[in-house]
Specification:
The chain has six helices and ten strands. By secondary structure, the chain is α/β, with parallel strands linked by helices. The mean pLDDT is 92.
Length: 207
């Protein structure tokens, strides 16, 4: 990833960011509010507005082969991103279908067991707590297996036991050759090397 730049209105959030993510990497994007952490994740995922730079995966420019790149990455935003009127299973099925994946019932059940929502398959999501909604989103890590995880504040609304478990999933993914790029205000304690990318707000010179 080379020369990544993004703008909000007429203000540059970050300019000429170069980023390399070899297999097995876990990297945390750090910086104060407004530095562009979420925007950078969306930039890489192809979801941001005004942006510039090259995003490549396996030596292929994402602009040249968008579909292949999309199939290799999973973006989870700071909101759960589930439909409250649908059941837990319906949400996972619909999200996977957007990627051309036809989820089997046992795959959903296994994923929900992993995130401690076993038996919640048919529960309408409007009846779930904030922490449970976050776990529905995290279940996608196991229903849509991909090498690149882009996670924006994944620890939001997760209890202490869940935090430790999610840290374990991040480490396990990297140990299996996956790549994790995340934002979080949570101090990470991972059983694997952790890299950092620091973003600072760009202060315009008005003189």
């Amino acid at each position: 990833m080379q020369g990544l730049s993004a703008w909000r209105d007429d203000r540059c959030l970050y300019c000429d960011v170069d980023l390399s993510l070899p297999t097995g990497t876990v990297m945390q994007i750090r910086g104060p509010n407004g530095a562009g952490k979420t925007t950078l994740l969306k930039h890489i995922a192809g979801l941001s507005g005004r942006r510039a730079g090259q995003v490549s995966w396996a030596s292929t420019d994402s602009h040249d082969d968008r579909d292949t790149f999309t199939q290799q990455m999973l973006y989870l935003g700071h909101l759960p991103g589930v439909k409250s009127a649908l059941t837990v299973a319906e949400n996972l099925q619909a999200l996977a279908a957007c990627r051309g994946i036809n989820l089997l019932t046992h795959t959903i059940s296994q994923a929900l067991n992993t995130v401690h929502l076993g038996g919640y398959d048919d529960m309408p999501c409007h009846q779930l707590s904030a922490g449970q909604l976050r776990r529905v989103a995290l279940a996608r890590l196991f229903t849509e297996p991909v090498p690149l995880w882009l996670l924006d504040e994944p620890f939001t609304a997760i209890d202490q036991a869940g935090v430790r478990e999610l840290e374990g999933w991040l480490a396990a993914h990297s140990e299996q050759g996956g790549v994790v790029l995340l934002t979080t205000h949570h101090p990470l304690a991972l059983n694997c090397p952790l890299q950092f990318l620091d973003l600072q707000p760009i202060v315009e010179d008005w003189h």
